[in-house]
Queue: 4 jobs
Job 1
Amino acid sequence: MKKISILGSTGSIGTQTLDVAAMHPDSFEIDGLAAGSNTALLLEQVRRFRPRRVSVASKELADDIRPQLPAGVELFSGDEGLVQIAAGGDADYVVTAVMGSVGLRSTLAAIEAGRDIGLANKETLVTAGHLVTELARCKGVNLLPIDSEHSAIFQCLNGERAQDIASITLTASGGSFRDLTREQLRNVTVEDALRHPNWAMGAKITIDSATMVNKGLEVIEAHWLFGLPYEQIGVVLHPESIIHSFVEFRDSSIIAQLGNPDMRVPIQYALTYPQRWHSPAQRLSLAQAGQLTFREMDFARYPALRLAIECGKIGGTATTAFNAANEVAVARFLRRDIPFVRIEEILEEVLERHTAESHPSLEQIEDCDRAARTLAHSL
Ligand code: NDP
Ligand code: MG
């Protein structure tokens, strides 16, 4: 029996993690759930999964739900609540599925408490990859990737020696606007952007897929998870999203991981590693798929991807500023405050004014995150 806590239980990854847990009720017990503001869904999850500890985004929300919680359930709120769910109680495994760098302190707290991490919250690694990976190494904690591309690479690398890896390549679907030219991007709406061709995900990551920022964040995530230099990390367009990513070895062999797009598969693998259990995911028939296609990544079409990789190469707080500016720009686009193409311009403008600090402390990272957010709001 594995005791799990979930940060972001009411989101796309959080609910699918609970789906996986519900399929194997004799193997998983839910210890803690942290949500943002969707209290109706959280209460439903509490009734169904009987966690001992829950948290919501604010004290006001906590006061609202307190009378409706079963006796004995501990209630927390705010950033401190996230930390309580991550590091308190007696879970042995924490799934980090909140959206954004708000997940940083709680992820560090979970690692400090010696808990293995199922890592969906890529912004944490982009914001402070060196702190998270160093602490995990120090504490002997496993960081198990949930992001489908990273789960794919992780599976392809199983049992291989680091020195035999020539390169890894992340596949990209191209997002909602893959068939539009840059000129056509000028008039797209929020509704258009939220219509992802292959994956149903949270709003922020769907917009990140359309700008290709998501792939940029994933390149940085891969750099930290697999300890590879940026020169050995490639990206290729693969509209079908069937090959989730692949590794090339020095003997020129390539190993890829394939499957229909269904996040429950990488989520379950992160929970059951090194075992593989039965999954209800639809089986892939290659004969039915017929053909898999690939295109060279066009960096002129997706300037934010180029910028993300540049920030990764600079390192230090450059990726922190990139991530923070992007979180604000995407939120502004979703509020209809700026047009779609302005997201990329805000990223460029924030990074132009940023002087990167190498090897920043947690405090320096949080200062940089705040400053980049303020600037991205003001532009
Ligand atoms: P969603 O927006 O669907 O969910 C985000 C979750 O975080 C919700 O439970 C939300 O609560 C919670 N949350 C937000 N802010 C706070 C806060 N201040 N305190 C506590 N909880 C908070 O996002 P996704 O599930 O799509 O993505 C989550 C992470 O996983 C992201 O980092 C994303 O990049 C990554 N990821 C997602 C994939 C996907 O398929 N969705 C695939 C690969 C990676 P509430 O809704 O109650 O407000
Ligand atoms: Mg991904």
Note: The CA atoms of residues 136 and 274 lie 18 Å apart.
Job 2
Amino acid sequence: WGVRAGGVERFADALVETANKIASPGRGILAVDESTKTIGKRLAGIGVENSEANRQAYRELLFTCEGLGQFISGAILFEETLYQSTRDGRQFVNTLNQIGVIPGIKVDKGLAPLGGALPHETWCTGLDGLSERAAAYYQQGARFAKWRAVLQIVPGGPSRQAIVENCYGLARYARTVQDQGLVPIIEPELLLDGDHTIERCAEVQEEIYSTLYQICQTQGVFLEGTLLKPAMTLPGADCKNRVSPDRIAELTVRTLERGVPAAVPGIMFLSGGMTEEEATINLNALNTRKRKGPWALSFSYGRALQQSCLKTWMGKPENVPAAQQALLARARANGKAQQGQYTPGSEPTLDRTGTFEAGYKY
Ligand code: 5MM
């Protein structure tokens, strides 16, 4: 593969295989790596207490959902979840593998204020000890990792400092976990907050991607064994000019073609507060456009895969089968959208408003 010397050499074939499996046709990622605080918000939304038992019960519902592997290739877990089991003692990593879903792990340690940058700009922590943690997660059965850096469009920003620092963290993380056998999902999330136009979003994302891949080169990241998890190219939540899914697809593809190397096998979008149906329709539009870029365009949705499921479950054991059907319906919808075959409204949703929350940094 011509990779730069280090642990990654021994894992190169496996990394490529895993990345390609995750980005395989008709499948995408279930992002359920909410930290304890964020899952607390989701559980509060259905009146359920944020206890370890309730977090375990919810994740057991997800990871024992028969048939999920047809549409979901990987699930991102929070550290607590990676070591949990079903109530009858089966490790979650095993139940996931049984239903055909590759277990992954969130390895960043969250955001911290970035001194010297614009107010509210952050950097992503977690590089200290990452190598050792990645080795332990691999031992426990994880085969891919995720690190989420956050940038925001504000007047005069994001600052160059924030872009460079966040891209540096993503690249260093990526190479570090590759050396331990984990496929890095590189997530430079650009928040929906703001009143900027879709064109401004495209401009900023172009700068982010070109900076990111330049630093990935400097750090020796093996691109064939990575996946990118960006936001779609969208107008800000407060922008008066709303745009069609076709326009979103056009600018998203153009931006990616300008900045993401062809060596990257898959682009797994985050949902960022869109409703379940919006996220699916936009993904479908992306996959019906003609394009030059060779990557798979798929999903790594958190909120846009879980809202109906949570609202059906409501913390009640008797609702588990119905909640699993709700999850399957949205997974199937996105599986079809990945192939450009989704008919709007053809799968049920209980998510009418979306989960966008202005100013919320989780
Ligand atoms: C599922 O939420 C993920 C973890 O968030 P925190 O550790 O900050 O609680 C989050 O990184 C998520 O994977 C991405 O934001 C994409 O999720 P959405 O909901 O935007 O699709």
Note: Residues 62 and 324 are 7 Å apart (CA to CA).
Job 3
Amino acid sequence: DRSLVIAPSILSADFSRIGEEVQDVVDAGADWVHLDVMDGHFVPNITFGPPVVKALRRWTDATFDCHLMIAPADPYLAAFADAGCDIITVHAEAGPHLHRSLQTIRGLGKKAGVSLNPGTPENVIEYCLDLIDLVLVMSVNPGFGGQKFIESQVEKVRRIKAMIGDRPIDIEVDGGVSPDTVGALAKAGANAFVAGSAVFKGDGKQAYAANISAIRDA
Ligand code: DX5
Ligand code: ZN
């Protein structure tokens, strides 16, 4: 089985001291850092782009798990690769050429991810499996942290796990992940867990470490 990954989303961090927050959460035991990029078009919120990713790259060597909630994504893939993303995830709904986007990401030497909104069925990835390193199952509608977990996505994780068989693909879940929801997701086949509000609560490194441990143990 794939190794267990906790990927805190800095969407819930203090953006005025985002570098220190990244360093603190990695010191607190984060495996990856999840970077939520939003364009105000694909999702109804705006966050940050390649310059911020590049600036954060100086604070840690941890894997940068970059979740692009932007459409179109293709014109920006090279910029995110250059900025220091290790995994670049595009949404299946973000354009008509998912297969080409994944080819482009692999061509840039990065790991390629595909994300599915809660309303999108898993079969859209079937003919892309040989180009995919990670499937990101959204368990909330993307755009904001702190939303309620959508239960139906546990079954989607189970179906994706069956679909990928023994291919070396991570299954990551994003949205409303907490000690209460993580167990069922792991049982269904997910191995990587994004958490924003459940990690960045309380003040600083000690609190983050306790929050990460609680998710890991659950
Ligand atoms: C939602 C983002 C998530 C979000 C998760 O659009 O993709 O990464 O920050 O936040 P929580 O864990 O609070 O649901
Ligand atoms: Zn995300």
Note: Residues 25 and 152 are 30 Å apart (CA to CA).
Job 4
Amino acid sequence: MKPVIALIGRPNVGKSTLFNRLTRTRDALVADLPGLTRDRHYGEGRVGERPFLAIDTGGFEPVAKEGIMHEMAKQTKQAVAEADVIIFLVDGRQGLTPHDKTITDFLRKSGRSVMLVVNKAEGMRYTSVAADFYELGLGDPYVISSAHGDGVNDLVEEALNIA
Ligand code: GDP
Ligand code: MG
């Protein structure tokens, strides 16, 4: 079985941008993944010789005002359950938000391995971009730019070591 990496985070932090970079496709490869639900996006990636599956949880973004948190939790829970390791994305330009804290609590309860990843950090110094996020209690943040690719290979190698 290929290790499964789930991309989790509130809307607009860059999950799909990272997913597209990891899998280099916009089409989910669901055909050969029996048992996995279809409302999220699955893709295959590779770092060096090591293949993995990525799940983009974009599908849980709210479509209606009612039950937003409920729907998000349901979708996120499913992706988390299928994952060997969670990449929890936050936005280094926007900084920490209450929504990030809610997701942190949710992920902590799951008992899964979580990597806290600060995205959109191109051109920013590690110490200044990471500082905001220590209070989440998830350790030293990884800092990347999904759009530019900075730090993405190292991140995935580390994720596969944990998975
Ligand atoms: P999602 O809602 O979490 O899937 O986020 P998207 O991947 O759709 O990205 C949301 C917005 O953030 C888009 O406008 C992206 O172009 C932008 N974005 C994503 N990654 C980066 C990044 O590394 N740097 C910057 N500056 N913008 C980014
Ligand atoms: Mg998305």
Note: The pocket of magnesium ion (ligand 2) is lined by residues 15-16, 58 (CB under 6 Å).
